[in-house]
Design brief:
By secondary structure, this protein is of the alpha/beta class. The chain starts with a helix and ends with a strand. The chain is built from 11 helices and 10 strands. The longest helix is centred in the N-terminal third of the chain and has 14 residues. A hairpin with a 4-residue loop joins strand 4 and strand 5. The strands form 2 sheets. A 7-stranded mixed sheet has the order 6-2-1-7-8-10-9.
Length: about 280
């Protein structure tokens, strides 16, 4: 049976009543798709799902994780990383520090991609970097930095395109071994991030729906890709307000390929590809 608007409302109201989670401003289309899969996977109808949510806190956390799960990968969309490497990050080379926030960081591959790139640009030491997510389980995975080799093997091509190749000087490749940053064990089917990268980020639970900036700093760069696509228009604007208020003047916000700033905050940023540069207040 297809998930109805009434089913979605019942699910959202139940979570609000028994937990701190609020999905009332998530995209109806996204919730419908996720809930439909959850009901099929658990062989339940909405009545049974709601009953178990009320009785089983660990089940509730599991369902929230499935609703909010966002896939991530090493150097996703290499062209975006080329823009960061050759057009954006060089602006910070002469600065004493660079502060970066990855809200909705999931299992951390994008955080470590950024740190690898910054290390290659000799900007690692002066970087302070934060990763946050609603889901504690994915944050624990991010802190460990261990990923499935077979699942991620294709993403090593992205590493090559961003770290080993120079699109502006194609005949001058960079000699960078995977082992500098990643411990690959094919027998154990693992890719493990190097310890010096694991020690750098500060990870914390953060709810974009409810929380303000919990880090008490302003950022030069915020990377939030493929997160706001799941929010409705009002919640998107609330999140854009949070980002705008906590970016330094002329700081950058990076969104996903299919995400854009519309409405009142469009005039507060200059669009540069997938990046948005904050206009001074």
């Amino acid at each position: 049976m297809a998930v109805t608007i009434q089913d979605i409302q019942q699910f959202v109201n139940t979570l609000k009543a028994i937990s701190r989670y609020d999905f009332s401003q998530y995209s109806e289309k996204s919730l419908t798709r996720r809930l439909d899969k959850i009901l099929v996977d658990n062989k339940m109808d909405m009545r049974k799902l709601v009953t178990k949510l009320r009785k089983d806190k660990s089940f509730l956390e599991k369902i929230v994780k499935e609703i909010t799960v966002n896939t991530t990968e090493l150097f996703r969309d290499p062209k975006v990383w080329h823009t960061l490497r050759y057009d954006i990050l060089p602006e910070y080379e002469e600065m004493d520090s660079i502060k970066i926030w990855h809200p909705g960081c999931s299992t951390g591959q994008e955080v470590y991609s950024m740190l690898i790139l910054l290390n290659e640009m000799n900007m690692f030491k002066k970087t302070k970097i934060w990763g946050s997510d609603l889901n504690i389980d994915v944050l624990e995975s991010a802190k460990k930095g261990v990923y499935k080799y077979q699942f991620n093997i294709g993403y090593l091509d992205n590493f090559d395109k961003v770290i080993k190749e120079n699109p502006k000087k194609t005949d001058e490749p960079y000699d960078v071994e995977y082992s500098k940053y990643l411990e690959i064990n094919k027998a154990k089917d693992t890719i493990k991030v190097a310890r010096f990268l694991l020690d750098k980020p500060v990870y914390a639970k953060h709810d974009l729906v409810k929380d303000d900036n919990i880090f008490s700093v302003k950022f030069d760069l915020i990377i939030c890709r493929n997160v706001i696509i799941y929010f409705n228009h009002d919640l998107q604007n609330k999140v854009f307000s949070l980002f705008y208020d906590n970016l330094n003047d002329e700081g950058y916000l990076l969104l996903g390929m299919h995400e854009t700033i519309l409405g009142p905050f469009a005039s507060k940023f200059d669009k540069i590809g997938q990046l948005y540069r904050k206009r001074p207040k």
